[in-house]
Design a protein that fits this description.
4-stranded parallel β-sheet; about 220 residues
Length: about 220
């Protein structure tokens, strides 16, 4: 059962969920999916709202699993499109850790959920079709404390040089992991000019592979 908490948690939602659980009792066991949506720097109380929701929801049923999902990659700000570069904090990751340091008895039930590298609001949008998207795109890279966005071009006379420079800036980050195979490998090759410029599908695939691989390693305790 998916419960959305895009901003504040309201206990008034409990009655409807309790009724739904009663009607679906024969389907037991249940899985609870707490969807926080976008957790950006302006949403400072995201962990507090998540815990309020979990405190109310967990006692309602013998949940098989409880997943908490959120998205942290921002929309590219205007300055990013002009400068070609943007660094953003990771409040969604901080929210997850704040939940896990809360001391709640149900913490062993909790599973991590992630929207990947696209802003959470994109999940509700219908993909554009026809022209293949705008002439520019983004390379996205996740580090322990930051999200990085580097502007690239799909079309244009200087796209190869611009895209190579964008990849090079990412590979020069202090937190870039040169030994990583997935995601990072494409960025290294693009920085050297040994793979094609790419397109929106390639940029999103590479970014998601890098992001998800890094998050899984962090959750496993292999990275801090």
């Amino acid at each position: 059962m998916r419960v959305q908490v895009p901003s504040e948690w309201h206990d008034r939602d409990i009655d409807g969920l309790r009724e739904l659980l009663d009607r679906a009792a024969s389907i037991d066991p249940f899985d609870l999916f707490l969807d926080l949506g976008a957790v950006l720097p302006s949403r400072r109380d995201a962990a507090k709202e998540a815990l309020s929701a979990l405190d109310a929801l967990v006692p309602l049923a013998p949940w098989r699993t409880v997943a908490v999902a959120s998205g942290g990659f921002p929309e590219p700000p205007d300055g990013c499109l002009e400068s070609g570069w943007y660094e953003a904090p990771r409040p969604d990751w901080d929210t997850w850790h704040e939940i896990h340091h809360s001391g709640r008895s149900y913490l062993p039930l909790l599973q991590y959920g992630d929207y990947g590298i696209l802003p959470a609001g994109y999940a509700a949008q219908t993909p554009a079709s026809g022209n293949g998207g705008p002439s520019w795109g983004l390379l996205r890279y996740t580090t322990t404390r930051s999200y990085f966005l580097a502007k690239v071009l799909q079309r244009g006379e200087h796209r190869d040089a611009i895209n190579r420079d964008a990849a090079r800036r990412l590979t020069r980050l202090a937190d870039f992991r040169p030994s990583a195979v997935t995601g990072e490998g494409w960025l290294r090759e693009r920085a050297q000019g040994s793979v094609s410029t790419g397109n929106h599908s390639v940029w999103n695939r590479v970014g998601n592979v890098q992001h998800m691989t890094f998050v899984v390693r962090c959750l496993d305790g292999r990275l801090r």
